[in-house]
Design a protein that fits this description.
Length: 167
């Protein structure tokens, strides 16, 4: 009996830990921004992988994140609680697909673009945020914000190279 309860509590601790971005979501101020910043070192480690493996990690992170965020949201009783920042991790990883080179300038530009879209939630991000519920609802708006941010980042990179602007 004790071992069964311990295993259940340990698993629950694991999914809370991942859902809150390994503790970054517990920041008393701007937890989404802190979570996005904490995603960058993990992203940097993934830059050594092939693009195929990188996409696989993002896909698995989304699948696992839907489950973890759904259960954490249900346990907390608040949809998309500010401490749940796994979605920010995923959004940043998607955004940084568009980074043309691994420099602090491009990472900062990607970070700022993602935070703007994630915070203001213009259409269609707003629509997904309001109309999709559960674990998918927690994550989908950040997937869309990350995708839009990656496209813009890639466009900026193309524009800067085409016009000899060094970033």
């Amino acid at each position: 009996m004790y071992k069964k309860n311990f295993a259940k509590k340990s698993f629950r601790f694991f999914y809370y830990l991942v859902a809150i971005g390994f503790g970054s979501g517990l920041s008393p101020v701007i937890p989404g921004t802190i979570g996005s910043l904490c995603a960058i070192p993990l992203w940097w480690l993934m830059t050594f992988l092939s693009l195929k493996i990188y996409y696989l990690i993002i896909f698995l992170s989304i699948c696992i994140g839907i489950y973890l965020c759904h259960h954490t949201t249900n346990d907390i009783g608040i949809h998309d609680h500010p401490s749940i920042v796994w979605d920010e991790f995923i959004g940043m990883w998607i955004t940084l697909i568009g980074v043309p080179s691994i420099t602090w300038q491009w990472i900062l530009i990607g970070f700022v673009i993602f935070r703007i879209f994630d915070f203001w939630k213009p259409w269609p991000i707003y629509w997904f945020d309001r109309n999709v519920h559960g674990g998918m609802g927690v994550i989908i708006d950040d997937i869309v914000a990350g995708t839009v941010s990656a496209i813009i980042l890639h466009g900026l990179a193309y524009y800067s190279m085409d016009n000899n602007i060094i970033i």
